[in-house]
């Protein structure tokens, strides 16, 4: 009797074990996966001078014929502007480097002004651009050779204006005038270039969301390790 009872228990135990194993393996399982995709935008700008670039250049030296052999007080069309060619909104800046010389200038009535270091070109900026400061440019001897001016595409209060993709700023200026200099001061047959550079930066996530033109220029200056300190 004992042996038969033991065998019955063994049979029950075996069945129970099979049921337990079957119960474990019968759980339904599933798996799913999601990948969040992000794309990186791009800030790119083009410095354009549409009217300047249309001017004839018969000798192919990249200087419009009208800009060669300029005379005192002559005005020529020059129209720098910036186009946002990227995929993100941008804040935009320009620097303008104007050559200078120590010269005597003449007023419209022919009277002379004292000999001082003067910028050789003048221009009238559009109100959509704000002057943030200027800095002297010197050569290796320490002589002042130019003045560089920094402009932000911003309102009068210094708040940067957003330039959206494919939008273009207003012209910084539309013409430049050569200084009314006395002859015989070494300006003749010289080449005096106006250097213009444009800078662009994203409009969001800048130092806590600032849109202040001065603060944003500091970010650009630090990132590009620019040496000038405009004031």
Automatic annotation (TrEMBL):
Pfam families: Peptidase_M73. Residues 59-68 have a biased composition (Acidic residues). The keyword Signal applies. Residues 50-84 are annotated as: Disordered. It comes from Blautia faecicola. NCBIfam families: cognate_SipW. Keywords: Signal. Residues 1-26 form the signal peptide. The keyword Transferase does not apply. This is SipW-cognate class signal peptide. It comes from the Bacteria.
């Amino acid at each position: 009797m004992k042996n038969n009872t033991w065998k019955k228990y063994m049979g029950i135990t075996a069945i129970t074990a099979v049921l337990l194993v079957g119960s474990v393996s019968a759980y339904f399982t599933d798996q799913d996966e999601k990948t969040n995709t992000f794309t990186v935008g791009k800030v790119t700008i083009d410095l354009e001078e549409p009217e300047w670039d249309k001017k004839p250049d018969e000798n192919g030296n990249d200087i419009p014929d009208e800009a060669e052999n300029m005379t005192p007080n002559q005005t020529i069309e020059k129209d720098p502007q910036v186009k946002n060619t990227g995929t993100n909104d941008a804040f935009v800046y320009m620097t303008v480097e104007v050559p200078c010389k120590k010269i005597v200038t003449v007023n419209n009535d022919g009277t002379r002004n004292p000999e001082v270091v003067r910028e050789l070109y003048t221009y009238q900026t559009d109100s959509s651009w704000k002057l943030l400061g200027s800095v002297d440019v010197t050569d290796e001897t320490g002589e002042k050779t130019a003045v560089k001016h920094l402009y932000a595409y911003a309102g009068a209060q210094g708040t940067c204006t957003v330039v959206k993709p494919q939008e273009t700023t207003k012209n910084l200026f539309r013409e430049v005038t050569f200084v009314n200099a006395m002859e015989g001061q070494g300006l003749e047959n010289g080449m005096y270039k106006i250097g213009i550079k444009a800078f662009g930066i994203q409009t969001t996530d800048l130092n806590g969301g600032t849109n202040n033109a001065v603060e944003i220029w500091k970010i650009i200056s630090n990132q590009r390790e620019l040496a000038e300190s405009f004031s």
